[in-house]
Amino acid sequence: ILTNNTDYGNGGGRLSADLISGIKAAGHEVQVEQGDLSLFSIFSIRKRIKACDIVHVMDGYPYAVIAALANLGLRKKLLITLVGTYSVAPLHNVKMAWLLRWAYRSADAVASISSYTRQEVLKKVELKNIAIITPGIDLPQFLRPHIASSENFILSVGALKYRKGYHISIPAFARAKKQIPDLRYKIVGSQSDVNYFNRLKETAQELKVEHDIDFLTDLTDGELGKLYQRARLFLLTSINHNHHFEGFGIVFLEAAAKGLPVVGTRGNGIEDALKDGYNGYAVAQNDIEATAQKTVEILGNQSQYQNFSRNSIDWARENSQENSTAKYLEIYRKVFSP
User: Fold this and answer.
1) Quick one: which of 47, 79, 226, 264 has the fewest CB in 10 Å?
2) What pLDDT is stored for residue 338 in this prediction?
3) Beta bridge partners of 109
4) Which residues have C-beta within 8 Å of that of residue 46, sequence separation ≥ 6?
5) What does the longest C-alpha to C-alpha distance in the chain come to?
């Protein structure tokens, strides 16, 4: 398996780590090559894949290209998983597009983590039968009962960067708070994009909600899990920006496993991570008013809230890591059969 990382602190890393764990649990031997690989890695990768039956690449550029080039003449079975932005954005770059298109066409099988990612790739390269295999979550780890809290707060989880849409969710929160005065907002994520973080703090000050928002970072899994359990609603208003987009949104499943209703956005991979009208709502991107309205609607209707909460748990159960791994193992069997 070639991947950027196996860090549980981000969606792509968690996807890779869970898949590796699932494949090993099924009794298969797995070799992993990870990190910031470049085209100069081709020869070392080639040596490693000689001993493998299947080469599975997580994401497009550069990993799919590296694997396809390293596999020339070896004819190992090649599977590429389209993870999101870096499976699509390079297809819009004249220098990279032709090479990535060739790599995709060289694969024995291609899987996409969402319908949207699949759709965006097919706009730029003709491929047949791209399977959609959405990420799953480790149910024993995430399925936990909700804990009553003295705080009435909504929760967002994701790095503080432009495409996560916090410049939309903060004004939406400010509007919702006018109808729910004790409402608070907790935002968990890396603050490494200092300029954007400062912009968000300025927005909160302008809207006079700076004392009602907690920006949190570097939380342990246990600390984050407790926030999920105590929150009232999960919100993430991701937007598409320069071909960068939310490939799926595993945090929506993590929240669902705690029984949280969710609010996300349409026109990206989030549409596969929640079930609109079943365990929450998907609103149009950049729509502050609609985001605020759906937040107030869910929190203000106890019957609907409880229904969404129960449905979220059922939705999480449907989207387990075990189910996701089983679908990949089925592809392995198909491509490797004589």
Assistant:
1) 47
2) 60
3) 79
4) 70, 71, 74
5) 66
